[in-house]
Amino acid sequence: MSNNLFISFELSEQNEEQEKFKKLLGALGNSTPLLNNCWYINSSYNAEEALKILGRAMTKEDKLVIANTATDSVMWAGLEEREARRIRQNWKMSLNKPKLAS
Predict the structure, then answer these.
(1) Mean model confidence pLDDT for the chain
(2) Is the separation of the CB atoms in 54 and 64 below 8 Å?
């Protein structure tokens, strides 16, 4: 199965594995860096598998969020409990369209 992974991360300055982390990102599949710390990857790996692979090059100070748009699922590591709780509360929540400021 093809998975559409959007991966956002923040690596601490103390992480000496930053280059390894980026190599692992690229090895997950057909990858495209979108922003400084946000990549799109078409991968045979799902979000949980990608998290385990990328976790090999992470420290406890790093943050990582992986959203799989193919399965509407999300995984994360290193988030504060408040951040994780907000994701759990809002994931798949049905909302009215927000009114955008003009």
Answers:
(1) 91
(2) yes
Summarize pLDDT for 4-38 with one digit per residue, the tens.
999 999 999 888 889 999 999 999 999 999 999 99
- The pTM is what? 0.87
Domains annotated for the chain, with CATH where assigned, are 3-82 (3.30.70)
Beta carbons of 75 and 47 less than 8 angstroms apart: yes
Dihedral of alpha carbons 65, 10, 54, 78, sign: negative
Cα–Cα distance, 25 to 41 (Å, whole number): 8
Closest CA to 50 of 71, 31, 66, 70: 66
Counting every residue written for the chain, the total comes to: 102
The half-sphere exposure of 65 on its side-chain side, counting CA atoms within 13 A, is: 14
* Angle ∠(1,62,52) on CA atoms, nearest 5: 30
